[in-house]
Amino acid sequence: xxxxxxxxxxxxxxxxxxxxxxxxxxxxxxxxxxxxxxxxxxxxxxxxxxxxxxxxxxxxxxxxxxxxxxxxxxxxxxxxxxxxxxxxxxxxxxxxxxxxxxxxxxxxxxxxxxxxxxxxxxxxxxxxxxxxxxxxxxxxxxxxxxxxxxxxxxxxxxxxxxxxxxxxxxxxxxxxxxxxxxxxxxxxxxxxxxxxxxxxxxxxxxxxxxxxxxxxxxxxxxxxxxxxxxxxxxxxxxxxxxxxxxxxxxxxxxxxxxxxxxxxxxxxxxxxxxxxxxxxxxxxxxxxxxxxxxxxxxxxxxxxxxxxxxxxxxxxxxxxxxxxxxxxxxxxxxxxxxxxxxxxxxxxxxxxxxxxxxxxxxxxxxxxxxx
Length: 371
Prior knowledge:
Number of helices: 14
CATH class of the largest domain: Alpha Beta
Largest sheet: 9 strands, mixed
Low-confidence stretches: 1-52
CATH architecture of the largest domain: 3-Layer(aba) Sandwich
Radius of gyration: 20 Å
Order of helices and strands: EEHEHEHEHEEHEHEHEHEHEEHHEHHH
Helix content: 25-40%
Strand content: 15-25%
Structural class: alpha+beta
Mean pLDDT: 87
CATH topology of the largest domain: D-Maltodextrin-Binding Protein, domain 2
Number of strands: 14
């Protein structure tokens, strides 16, 4: 396939932009962490087998809480042999770009639009229109070229256990956690900024303080908020789930993707409350695409057709409290999940601006504000 051309199932050729911003390049240059960490809630790992195995290699950052095992088992039942390779969001995007001249993976799913836009710019993914394309809102994916397609939507929320913290005592604004001294050390902060969720938290915070004359496009007030956020929080403990810390009284608040709430309430006996700030909360839409250069194009397309179908996404929604983009599958989502998503305002975030700056924001934060 010619560089910069998206090969779609309808035989259309779409020319991608060949000019990349220096900030995107900065995001993707540097060492790539190739080993998953069991303490990372977004990333567990297995090393990819040799290509000669014939197994479809599926890259994802959404394989925790049994998701990877479930997808692998269900795919096998459908006659599709896959192996999941999991990493945190930023590290996974870096890996795919690093391998683009000699790809190891065949399909990638779970990353949000921001990462997929970067993969598209880097010509590391191929366009393919899945059989279920008409059942999803393409605006939630890549409306211009169809290089990637949406699967699941979820909110990134700050939670607490109403068994130990009453709703009347919980703050109404997340910023109260680091601005009010009574909450000092009582909320968890994830300092592993190679993961998607911590980057989204950072992006959501800084997006409220955009200033074209400020440092990296952010006002001094915005950077002061970042400093307070990390300084007054309790760093996440490697290998320890947020909800374990909540039930032990180590912290009272923390951040989690909305799809993880139901399973944790069942496991830990908690009753989750959610802070709903006036500005809204970050939302992410997990996407799926074929990795450019795969030698298993037909298998990759078959997997995408299967995994994104209304039937499978409906089963996935019931099993993992997901909120499918597929409108037919959404009917199978848990009522409490639909109620939560419908109740939370989406924060207005310019993800194009974020994508251009996130690398520099992460670097500044790691150098200046993390211990």
